[in-house]
Amino acid sequence: MYWEQEKECISRDDLAQLQLERLQSTLYRVATHVPFYRKKFKDLAISPEDISSLDDLSKLPFTTKQDLRDNYPYGLFAVPLREVVRIHASSGTTGQATVVGYTHNDIKNWSSLVARVLTGAGVTKDDVVQIAFGYGMFTGGFGLHYGAEAVGASVIPMSSGNTKRQLQIMEDFRTTALVCTPSYALLLADIMEEKGIDINALSLKYGLFGGEPWSEAMRNEIQNKLNIIATDNYGLSEVMGPGVAGECQERNGLHINEDHFLVEVINPDTLEPVAPGEIGEIVITTLTKEAFPVIRYRTRDLSRLLSESCPCGRTLTRMQRVMGRTDDMLIIKGVNVYPSQIEEVLFEIEGVKPHYQIVVERDGRLDKITVLVEVSEVIFFDQMKKQREMIELIKKRMATELGIGVGVKLVEEKSLERSEGKAKRIVDKRQL
Ligand code: DLL
User: Fold this and answer.
1) Ligand 1: distance of its center to the CA of 301 in Å?
2) DSSP H helical segments within 56-181, as ranges?
3) What residues form DSSP beta bridges with 280?
4) DSSP letter string over 239-303?
5) From the CB of 210, is ligand 1 less than 6 Å away?
6) Residue 431 pLDDT > 90
7) Atom of ligand 1 lying closest to residue 232 CA
8) How many Å lie between the centroid of ligand 1 and the Cα of residue 326?
9) Cα 137 to middle of ligand 1, angstroms
């Protein structure tokens, strides 16, 4: 099922033409209204007229998170505030917050792009959608909310947290679609198990999860525990929020809403495009945003584009699930490792609970990691021998799958912090 079939199944030629027209008008918009871009274009001696094909994109400058911070709060807005009807901001936990704005038209587009993602995942107006993303400055709650309303579903604006109440509402209101981060979905599933709630007595059918990296193994775990179809959806506030890309029911990569976003994949060191299909940093140019357009925004997210066509009929290119952020990459004895890869290995081991944390420490000049893993009570309270065997097994699997040696520490069930939003997988002790 499609939300806007003519766009989601557009021919690649028509798409390229549409993208070019929209790119050109975005470039005029920023060159006229945003001093930051005007100066950048001037420094590079380029003007919007020089961009006459999509291949010319590489002539344009990148935009980084630092640029957003330097122009805090409204410096990159391309419309006066009187035309802005909504403002969101990132939490700013890693520095100054970044602020983004939306016109009426932006909100309309945002809602319909999120509606596409929801429809692709199976949601219709017959569904009861429980949104357990935080409402507020975070784009997750409101973004999904407007999209679900556009679809015509019955929306429950639960927001995040208050887990007991989430479950009560899920049962009483007969929620059919759960929308939150994958780690929160797992927490809800665990508490259900603990409380003896019969999953088959619930009405859940779909789970739409995003906002943080997760692995295929984690998807399986959530699908089995909640008895749902779980799809991945991706976005970031600097570009819009959720609605940038989402999986269809094939669950094999996320269709990018390419009529609104132009995506490139670059090598984060050389800044050159990677070869087709290779992993690199996702760079996004918005094509329709009015209040807050961005040119070649460096997301720091790593993924690759899948060029094969999708059986669902959408012609929009898919990206593979985001494996992590360049800032979360760990270099262990020269090998690049992402938390999601560690997760993938852990989930395959019987007796290991899907809760873990990665502690990074510095040993001389080298970084080393210790993975804290929750194990079932039977193992935790059993003889030392069983624990030693488990530790050896995990170390061995990590060595074969990832090619690195890691420290492993088994911890008691429920001893690691649970997350109601984005999970914190890495505990970095290097700066302490
Ligand atoms: O997390 C937007 C969003 C909300 C997307 C709800 C999907 C669902 P930010 O708070 O700005 O916006 O964080 C954006 O989160 O650059 C990625 O690193 C990460 N991220 C978002 N979705 C995914 C995903 C929202 N599906 C940052 N897989 C992005 C992996 C994701 N990482």
Assistant:
1) 9
2) 65-70, 104-121, 139-151, 163-172
3) 303
4) TTEEEEEEE-TT-SSEEE-TTTEEEEEE-TTT-SBPPTT--EEEEEEESS-SSS--SSEEEEEEE
5) yes
6) no
7) 26
8) 14
9) 14
| Architecture of the CATH domain 330-431 | 2-Layer Sandwich (3.30)
Instruction: For residue 178, count CB atoms less than 10 angstroms from its CB and return exposed for 0-12, middle for 13-18, buried for 19 or more.
Output: buried
The position carrying tokens 């906002």 is 211
Residue type, 185: A
Instruction: Give span(s): CATH 3.40.50.12780, the chain.
Output: 1-327
pLDDT at 248 over 60: yes
pLDDT at 92: 67
User: 341: Cβ below 6 Å to ligand 1?
Assistant: no
Q: Tell me the CA–centroid distance for residue 140 and ligand 1, in Å.
A: 8
| Nearest atom within ligand 1 for CA of residue 299 | 16
Query: Ligand 1: which of 100, 113, 236 to mutate, most ligand atoms within 8 Å of CB?
Result: 236
**CA-proximal residue: ligand 1, atom 12 (nearest):** 236
pTM over 0.85: yes
Chain position carrying tokens 């992590």? 324
The single-letter code of the amino acid at 432 is L
pLDDT tens string 160-203: 999 999 999 999 999 999 999 999 999 999 999 999 999 999 99
Give the contacts of 386 (CB within 8 A, at least 6 positions apart).
379
Distance 379 CA to ligand 1 centre (A): 35
Q: Which residues pair with 297 in a beta bridge?
A: 63, 284
- The whole-angstrom separation of Cα 267 and Cα 256 is 20
Q: Which residue has the tokens 């005029």?
A: 28
Q: What pLDDT is stored for residue 354 in this prediction?
A: 86
Q: How far apart are CA 39 and CA 70, in angstroms?
A: 14
| Selection from 175, 186, 321 nearest residue 247 by Cα | 321
d(CA 311, CA 382): 48
Residues carrying CATH 3.30.300.30, the chain = 330-431
Q: Answer whether 142 contacts ligand 1 (Cβ < 6 A).
A: no
Domain 1-327 annotated CATH 3.40.630.30: no
pLDDT in tens, 251-273: 999 999 999 999 999 999 999 99
Q: How far apart are the first and last CA of the chain?
A: 51
In the block, tokens 């797992």 appear at 186
* CB 301 less than 6 A from any atom of ligand 1: yes
